[in-house]
Amino acid sequence: MFSHVMLGANDIDASKAFYDATLGALGVRPGRVDPKGRVIYMHDGAIFLLSKPIDGEPACHANGGTIGFAAASPDEADAWHAAGIANGGTAIEDAPGIRDGGFGKLYLAYLRDPAGNKICALHRVVE
Q1: What is the number of domains present in the chain?
Q2: SS3 for 55?
Q3: By three-state DSSP, how is residue 101 classified?
Q4: I need a labelling partner for 109 at 20 to 30 A (CA). Which of 40, 69, 82, 98 fits?
Q5: Distances (CA, A) of 48 to 12, 34, 92
């Protein structure tokens, strides 16, 4: 459904360190920096990028927006969450755990990245 996801970042180095750690906990290789200074992550056919805003204005987070990263297990989601906190992220919402909603049981862990973007790790619990 998506070709890619790109987030704005004011401090590319801090954001790269954060995403290298959190995505690394999900088995993703460290991002590479292209000639325009964007950080590119590629994994299982998905592309995730970080960039300073092209318009020169400060990057800001989307109020109400969330980007979810797939986790293979609750342990992987917990490792993602811990890596994020250790690398400049902020824990938000409830502690990582199972939520029972309209899509079945989900193991979710939420963070804000160094630029304030809301992200989560999601594992679908199979019963």
Answers
A1: 1
A2: coil
A3: strand
A4: 40
A5: 14, 13, 22
